[in-house]
Amino acid sequence: MNEQVVIGIDIGGQTTKCGVVDARGNVLAQTVIRSDTFTEVEPYIASVADALKKIIADADVDGSVRGIGVGAPNGNYYTGDIENAVNLTWGGSRSIHFAKMLSEAMDGMPVALTNDANAAAMGEMTYGAARGMKNFIMITLGTGVGSGIVINGEVVYGHDGFAGELGHTCAVRHNGRQCNCGKTGCLETYASAVGVARTAREWLELTDEPSSLRSLDNISSKDVYEAAKGGDNLAIKIFDFTGRILGESFADFIEFSAPEAIVLFGGLARAKEFLTGPIEKAMNANVLPLWRGKVKLVYSILKESDAAILGASALGWEL
Amino acid sequence: MNEQVVIGIDIGGQTTKCGVVDARGNVLAQTVIRSDTFTEVEPYIASVADALKKIIADADVDGSVRGIGVGAPNGNYYTGDIENAVNLTWGGSRSIHFAKMLSEAMDGMPVALTNDANAAAMGEMTYGAARGMKNFIMITLGTGVGSGIVINGEVVYGHDGFAGELGHTCAVRHNGRQCNCGKTGCLETYASAVGVARTAREWLELTDEPSSLRSLDNISSKDVYEAAKGGDNLAIKIFDFTGRILGESFADFIEFSAPEAIVLFGGLARAKEFLTGPIEKAMNANVLPLWRGKVKLVYSILKESDAAILGASALGWEL
Questions:
Q1: Complex ipTM
Q2: Three-class secondary structure of residue B291 per DSSP
Q3: Which residues, numbered 273 to 292 in chain A, qualify as contacts with chain B under a Cβ-Cβ cut-off of 8 Å?
């Protein structure tokens, strides 16, 4: 009972995952509650606090919890607030003092909060593929493209707490795809799961190339991946294109912070057999000679079901 | 005699500037020696050491020197080496253990070394426009485009000591201009003094637009600036274009590190009355809404003749 543990909370639009984690990254107990059945934050926090008390009891770690780490959309590390999180039913366009409120509901237990991608970077550095690295860039390839930048062993938060929005750097300057953020040509309009599906729909419409994807109604990135595994040429070319766009962007990121590695995580990263080659080719063709062939491209090694909890929990060790 | 001072050395291809600097950024004594009359590093270092002993005597600060800071092309902060500096007559394609050698020539006085743009960032943070800022990006607009990135009050050196090559991020993806680094479309092929002169020559050839620049033989960025001040329309449009390219790139830099400000320095920054408007317009049009109108664009306030010495000297305070 003396070994210290931390709690990780991953807040998503639909569900909230909570877990108790030890120093080696073992999830000792976990539970999932709904995020989307609340329209007010107070009852949601009460529900989170109940869940935490349950898993603390399940893992039998009462008195050994060092702190609580939270990964949340639009989470601000400096303030502990969740700001303008329009995808959370209890969020909306305002600042919620989440860390402070949760700490009060947990009898003063310290709470740190950041966004999901920064939490993923912390998790990878603490328990995963970036263990021992002091300079790396985490790229999460999910519905969107998120990023967590680590320099000198610390996540970069910037002047206002919101640094690391690499999914919204410009991948295509002119006539780029419309992004949800209001801009055009953002990296995530091409290199996310949604972006890959967009590429597929676009290319199926613009070309006559035969493809097993033509028989599908609502194409997802998973369909493109399955087709590529089945040897579908168009699907493989879609990943070539996606990898090239990613590699070109990574070259610019390397010129910024000279990382030891770029670490990929998320649903789309599962297609690594089709992405790695094109990414490395474009990255090395577009970076300064001094970094050519020197920056590693690695994939998360955290168990996908645990990764979100582990990432958030890693913040707890800093408290 | 008790107040501590530092020494700053700025190594350029032709000359080396050395100065004694106090904590308020006053240059108490300075001198300039040639860099390009040496083919071996040993006699060059002996010459630098003689110069330093002279200015230490001139300023009457013997015994009060805290350390020596050096700004040099391809200077590596981690190793103290100057690596592959082909523009230095005694440099060439090898590693020179410059900091160690100079320290030995100065009876063990501590020496820190970095590249010119990082030194400029340190100078601006210690004595200039970025005093009190913990997160900013320094962009030097000279013959090339250099950068020094400050995060959490520290210059970013990255995994290998060479971070912050923003002049070689991609400004124009396809059919971009050839850069000296071997790549195409690099920011510095458009937004440096050389880049502005290139734009002028290109536009004069491709259009019939009347311009006072047509009467000149060998157009420099200074000529374009003088023409713009004289109301020349083409010259003003060249700065509009240069500012747009810079602003588009700055938007991506902001998405990386969320700085409080971008600080401009260098010969081309003198054209601020023509650059500021176009830069701010493009920067705010291309950045995520959360940073729109919030990131300052500021210009160096250091006296140009002292800036290089001040920047290098700032490193000395960390020793």
A1: 0.93
A2: helix
A3: 286, 288-291
